[in-house]
Amino acid sequence: MPRKDGIDLPGALMLVLFAMFFALNQVVIKWVNGGLQPVFFAGIRSLGAVVCVWAWMRMNGRPLRVEPGTVWAGLAIGVAFTAEFLLLFLALDLTTVVRSAVLFYSMPVWLALMAHFFLPGERMGGVRVLGLVMAFAGVTWAIANRGDGGGHGSVLGDLCALGGAIGWAATAFLARGSAMVRVRPEMQLFWMVLVSGVVLTAVSPFFGPLVRDFQPLHWVGLIFQIVMVVTAGFILWLWLLSVYPPSGVASFSFLTPVFGIGFGWLLLGEQTGLGVLGAGVLVCVGLILINRPARQVPPSGTAA
To answer: Domain total for the chain?
Structure first.
């Protein structure tokens, strides 16, 4: 499909559904955590995804090839991906989906900060700085709010969700600002799931018994995570980025915490008081401002 200059109606519908899908994903993780220890669950999810991503590449005639000079970058992006999901899965074991949705999907805040300091041409202007301040205020409010319907999440769980967001931002930063920029998106994903699968599975015994109250239905959640979320979901996301402007795709990210709060309340009966809703609004508005495309300055002599 040829690259588009803006988000059309099919693209908007896909991005809204994508935001809903990833918000629902947190509910599934929390549910499967009841049957499997979170770090072990994250590890076997990544190992299963290694097979699926390899099969997808093989079916599409894309060789599994390590580009010269990219090994260290591949290991680094794999470590960042490992940290992201180790912390997210622990967060969903310790805090609520409602709180995790607000904190984890603050990722563009931390990515914007990394890009501002380390990527040429990515310095933030006044509007984006305002968005950064608003989103940061929302994150602070979410962690500080322990009452008024804030839910029964622990401070440690909230901090894990925030750490997962920073790990996610580091993953995205390395994809753009390291030797990974020379690597095809599906090969980047292969590095991520391979390294995280090995590391998470290896360290999982340090986090307690590997199996909790595992029921046959938990297999459905595990397979859903491997096939639909890590493999199909991430590949679809990379495809959307290849067709539509990245700023337009990113601007839909503010919907995910909204849906996350809604699913946490609807499916898990979690509390959504004014405190957590206010924090969510601040984060979402901040994300909209951060992802706002820079205004194009017309050349001299042309109409504004």
So the answer is: 1
Is 303 contained in some domain?
A: no
Structure confidence by residue, pLDDT tens digits, 288-297: 887 776 555 4
- Domain residue limits at 177: 9-290
In a domain, 141, yes or no: yes
Residue 219 forms part of a structural domain: yes
State which of 67-71, 125-129, 145-149, 203-207 shows the largest mean pLDDT: 203-207
Query: Tens digits of per-residue pLDDT, 225-269?
Result: 999 999 888 888 777 877 777 666 776 777 888 898 899 988 988
Q: 263 is written with which tokens?
A: 């699913």
Q: At what angle do helices 126-144 and 155-177 cross, to 10 degrees?
A: 150
Residue 74 within a domain? yes
pLDDT digits (tens, 9 = 90+) for 69-108: 999 999 999 999 999 999 999 999 999 998 898 899 888 8
Cα separation, 273 vs 150, whole angstroms = 6
